[in-house]
Amino acid sequence: MKHQYYRFSTYIYALFMLFLGIIIYLLYRPQSLLIFKILDALGLNYVIDNLRRSFSRFPLPPFVINSLPAGLWTASYLMMMYISTKFHTRNIRLMLALPLPISAIILEFSQLFGWCSGTFDIYDLICYVIPLIIFIKSI
User: Fold this and answer.
1) Labelling 19: which of 2, 12, 76, 78 has CA 20 to 30 A away?
2) Using the 8-state DSSP alphabet, how is residue 135 labeled?
3) Nearest to 32 by CA among 22, 40, 42
4) Which domain, by its residues, includes 85?
């Protein structure tokens, strides 16, 4: 019973981090991003615009707006993978969990060297690496 509670609460924490990252992204990131075009096509821009106006009174530091969502998403994914792969060997767990955060790290370095569009940000890199290190050490 204790194991089920732990598993359930970990999923709740992971979903909360995912949701928080999405909220920060939608409320504070520039509306020129692709996701806002998708939301507009779905007819949801009116709702998002109203929420953005309501939250504009609560400014956030640039790190929270630009880097923290990626860190929250990475941590959320790795927490879910930690629970979902609990009964697999360490190697299988690593093989299943590592492709996403490693891809994000490679993409960040690709931006540094100009191999893909975007802006390299050391804080983004830190937000990808810290949850990854915690995951690797915990399994």
Assistant:
1) 2
2) H
3) 40
4) 2-138
Which pLDDT does position 1 carry in this prediction? 65
Task: Please write the tens of the pLDDT for every residue from 56-78.
Answer: 999 999 999 999 999 999 999 99
Q: Cβ(6)–Cβ(50) under 8 Å?
A: no
pTM, to two decimals: 0.87
Q: Are 69 and 22 in contact (CB under 8 A)?
A: yes
Separation of CA 118 from chain center: 17
Residue 133 CB-density burial (10 A; 0-12 exposed, 13-18 middle, 19+ buried): exposed
Here the tokens at position 36 are 């806002």
Q: What is the DSSP letter of 29?
A: S
> How far is 53 from 124, CA to CA, in rounded Å?
26
E-state strands within 8-74: none
Report the SS3 class of residue 34.
Answer: helix
pLDDT tens digit string along 11-21? Answer: 999 999 999 99
Total domains, the chain: 1
